[in-house]
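Quick one before lunch.
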Amino acid sequence: MQQPTLTLYSDANYYSPYVMSAFVALTEKGIPFEIETVDLAQAENLKESYSAISTTRRVPTLSNGSFQLSESSAIDEYIEELFPAPTFAAIYPSNPEDRAKAREIQAWLRSDLMAIREERSTEIVFAGQHRPPLTSAGQAAADKLVDAALRLLDERNNLFGEWCIADTDLALMLNRLHLNGDALPEKLVEYVERQWQRDSVKEWLALSGKK
Ligand SMILES: N[C@@H](CCC(=O)N[C@@H](CS)C(=O)NCC(=O)O)C(=O)O
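Model of the glutathione complex:
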């Protein structure tokens, strides 16, 4: 069967955690795709050419022929439906409750913890930068994240036993803290470092380090 031509639109620096999620999802599936970059610093995302394909005018956007989709978790779910297990690697748990929970975690990481996102930008994760100590709002968000991660992981290596895309998203958020030198419980340090060893994640890190 002829594979559709998929194009993933990314920020030019490869610093976007949301593009990373879609990139890892596509890479885990082992399907060919192309990457086009959009220079956000030059507001290329607001130009007509990009507005015509992206509802949100943000990255990521995935283009599949005449169909275009933005919002990283929507892209992850679309990819999972288009390239289902067992023919392709699963990126979500098969159990309905675990699958729903994975989506819950993805939605939460994208809609909450704003103080961490503001005070611990992804330049820390992808460009080795460092930021001053967290404010009290940042620390409160970090405490909330750590507490939730410890409860969610319990004694497992991944959120739901087998790896899923929510593990990459959760590890990214924890790494905003860990790679800045903010203290994390040892169990979470082991978790993020293990997640960062995945081949698909390493491929993304190679892109962000190569600019
Ligand atoms: N909820 C969106 C967030 C996407 C997002 O915030 N993308 C940023 C880059 S990290 C962007 O395109 N910013 C440019 C803008 O908002 O104008 C997703 O999960 O895809």
